[in-house]
Amino acid sequence: MSKILLISPWAPPPDGVAFHSLALVTSWQDAGHEVLVVTSGSENALVLNLASPNGQKIRAIRTLQLAPRRATTQLLSDFQPDVVIVQFAIASQSTALLSTLRLMSSAFRSGLPVVVAFHEPARELDRLGPLSRWIYRAAARFTTHPVVYSHAGATALRDAKIFTHVTEIPLGCLPAKKLSYDDLTRVRNRYNITAPLVLSLGFTHADKGTDVLVASMSSVARLLKGNVQFLIAGSPRDRRGVFRLWGRSDQKFHRLLVKRVRLLKGVSIKLCGFVPDEDVSALLFLASAVVLPYRRATQSSVANQALGARAVIVASDIPELCSELGTAAHYFHSDSIPNLTETLVSVLNNPQDELRDAAALRAADRSYDATAAELLNIGLFKSNSS
User: How many domains does the chain have?
Assistant: First the structure.
């Protein structure tokens, strides 16, 4: 069995990368590996996190701060890992970015395999320009095995000349499971679901295209004679440091979105913040349509959660979502309000049992266990064979 040091964002606060890391750690521990999570926090404290899906305790040290500290790099000597795995995204690392790079550097210089999974290269390399390229090149210097979770991510890294070779693996999904009657009833009552529900879930910003869904709502409600309700569950990502510039843009987008929602007439719609983990699967399953109207994405944790929940997925036809979801979704032309309207009306007017079955099969083919094993194999076995 191996000792794995994972450098990653970790909840709280809510974060897609942190959710993904929780699933990976659960898989590694189930397989008998020893894992230590190093993440950001206000003090050097050992956290025993009982939020693992199977109830296992997860060791997480919140020691990554704005300025690198010797106590952080000392973890390598204290824990003596066989491999270091990094879940890398500028937006998620935020003000702990320099400490993350320092720990990666120490691991690299000590001869350890450093597997770095880049979550959002397509979006981040585009939005931050020269600054993001500098950050990515700094990370590349301390990376022995670069990994991405989508073809778009690999293309972005190669086009920016960060790497010439990148390993692409699936993001991973929770296996589809049967939800209890009590859970379904509790979530149905909590969110007051009384009609076919159209759901948008996750962070709100311009790339997610939630404004396209809002613009279609009046027509969808009219064509369905009011027998539909909408729920937008999410809010802007909390950003710190220099990344507050992104945060201001996200906040502005969200304010405009709320304003448009309030102007709607004859539409049953509710906005809420983030959905608690214990409600997510049931809410995704209860929705008559989970809409992913993205304009841009590298990969989507919401899409993979929806697959595991056997949700009815309606997604924009951007290549990243088509690759991730395959035949387990209905697609509409990205940014096309009329086409989204037509697709939603068709989905809500017809049974979707076959699509739910396709989602379950897709989730089984792209399990977190397989992704976790592949990440570990890349670090251990590729290093031994090189």
Answer: 2
